[in-house]
Amino acid sequence: MSYLNNIKKYATVDFSYVYRNTEYSQCQMNKYKACVKDTEKKKRLSNNLCPICYYTGHWTGGQMFTQNQCGVCEAEMMFGSTCIDVVCPKCAKELGICKHCGTTLNLKLPKKEKFKVAK
């Protein structure tokens, strides 16, 4: 019981804390539901993004301009922040992967034969 007494000394849980966290959890749940429904699939695929990045992504970045190489063809890419894509749009489209995280666009495990990428 002394363990519980110690927690009470340090944890401050009040109405605003519970309200704020519940609101955040509801927001996250809505994002996951949208991800499963995939109502904007056509738009998502045209942007070469997987459902997770499209519906739940809220990327922030630091530095003003960041340069990176495509993880497949090594083409130079320029971004407006440190929030960068891992592959260029061309390679993402050819391989059917998300340009931002590299996941397959349909979230199904890929077949190894499809990825015959030579560097």
Structure, described:
The structure is a single chain. This protein is mainly alpha-helical and 119 residues long. The protein has one domain (2-114). 43% of the residues lie in helices and 7% in strands. The protein is built from five helices and two strands, in the order ααααββα. A two-stranded antiparallel ribbon has the order 1-2. The model has no long low-confidence stretch (mean pLDDT 83).
Poorly predicted segments? none
Count every helix, treating DSSP H or I runs of 4 or more residues as helices: 5
Q: What series of H and E elements makes up the topology? A: HHHHEEH
Helix content: 40-55%
Kindly provide the radius of gyration, computed on alpha-carbon positions and rounded to a whole number of angstroms.
20 Å
Kindly list the characteristics that best describe this protein:
119 residues; mainly alpha; two-stranded antiparallel ribbon; 5 helices; 7% strand
Summarize the structure.
This protein is mainly alpha-helical and 119 residues long. The chain is built from five helices and two strands; from the N terminus they run ααααββα.
Question: What is the element layout, followed by pairings?
Answer:
Layout: H1 2-10, H2 15-37, H3 41-46, H4 51-56, E1 66-69, E2 76-79, H5 89-95
